[in-house]
Amino acid sequence: MSARKSILVLDDSPLVLGIVRDALQNEGFDVVVASDLRAFERHVATATPDLILIDVNMPEAFGDDVGAVLKGARKLTVPIWLFSNMDDKTLEARSRDAGLDGFISKRAGVNVLVQRVQGILGARAVS
Amino acid sequence: MIESLRARFLSRFIESARERIDRALALDAVGADGAFGNIANELHGLGGEASMLELSEISGLARSCEKAARHGDRNGVRRGLEGLRMATEALGSRPSSE
Asked: Is the model's pLDDT at A38 over the cut of 50?
C-alpha cells in the first residue's frame, strides 16, 4: 500500500504549478495541480489531499477567501496553507484572518517550499 | 535541485516573462482606467515565477516595479519594465544558471 502523501496546489501560473509539481514529486509526494477555481473545486469534491496550497493573488478570487470557504462553509479539516509572492507580514495576517493553517512565501524559493512541506507532512513520504 | 529545475523551466520562464512584460507595456501605452492594477498583477505574477526559480535579480526588480504600479508611479513602472526586459534578455543569452 502506498504511503505517499498528496498535495493539491491552486495557482493561476502554469509555470509555478510545473515547478512546484516537479520539485515535490521529486521528493516523493503526489501532487495534483489546478490553474483555475473550477478545476480546483473538482479536485476538492472528488479527493481528500493531505495538504492544500493556495496562491493568493489570482484573477478569479483571492486565495485566502477560497481557503476560508473551504474551512468554514465546507468544513474541510485538511491543512490549508497560503502560497504567495506577498511579503511574510501580509501573508501571516491574511492566513490568520482567514482561519488557515499557515503560509509559505514564494520569495523564499522552491527549496524552502519543499522543506516546509516536508515539515508539515513528514519528510519523503514514499511507499 | 534548483539547477535541474532551472534547466527544465528556464526557457518557459523567459517566454512567460516576455509575455508579461509585453502585456504590461501595452497596458501602460493604452493608459486605461485600472491599468496600474493590471500592470501590478502581471508584475506580481512575474515576481512569483522568478522567485520559484530563485532568480533573485528579476524577482527583486519585479517587486520594485509592482510597488511603483500600485502607487501609480508611471515613470517608476516604465523604468522598472525596461530593467526587467533587459534582465530577462540577459538571462536568455547565458546558460541555465543565474
From this structure: yes
